[in-house]
Amino acid sequence: MKPLEESASQSIFKNGYWFYFDLDGVKITAFGSAWTGKEVIFAGEEIVSLKRSFRKLSEHIIQVDTDQYRIQFVTINIWTGELSCQLFKNDVHLQTLTKAFLSAGWTKKHVGILFITGFILGYFLPKLIFGW
To answer: What CATH number does the domain containing 65 carry?
Structure first.
């Protein structure tokens, strides 16, 4: 796995969540998948941390040169798929980036309608097709 270019990472549904940090020449890229829970941290193009997590808060600690970096993934809103990535250097907060699966135009009402539609189709289609 290699880090995606920033311009190619816009499709969260297809490519997952990509977060890019550039600090004094140190490029740290963080990837999170909402589907598989896979989290990958890159320093440059090298994978320095990899794990799977479905928790609301997940943390990676890496060492680059003499500095310790802490990267936290925080699920902010499960309904919209909003995920935040926080970067700390030597326990000092540097930056927080946030991305969401659903755009700002989507509301809980839209998600609720999709959920109810899925429930109805999932319940009645097998009955109609297989006669259950």
So the answer is: 2.40.128.180
Q: Number of helices (H) and strands (E), helices first, in the chain?
A: 2, 8
Q: Are 79 and 91 in contact, with CB atoms under 8 Å apart?
A: no
Residue 1 lies in a domain: no
- Rounded Cα distance between 114 and 38, Å, is 26
Q: What is the pLDDT of residues 23-51, one digit of tens each?
A: 888 899 999 987 889 999 999 999 999 99
What average pLDDT does range 93-119 have in this prediction?
A: 81
76/24 same-domain check:
yes
Q: Are residues 77 and 29 in the same domain?
A: yes
| Residue 9: φ, ψ to 5° | -100, 20
CB 101 within 8 A of CB 12: yes
Domain that holds residue 21: 6-101
Burial of 8 (0-12, 13-18, 19+ CB in 10 A): exposed
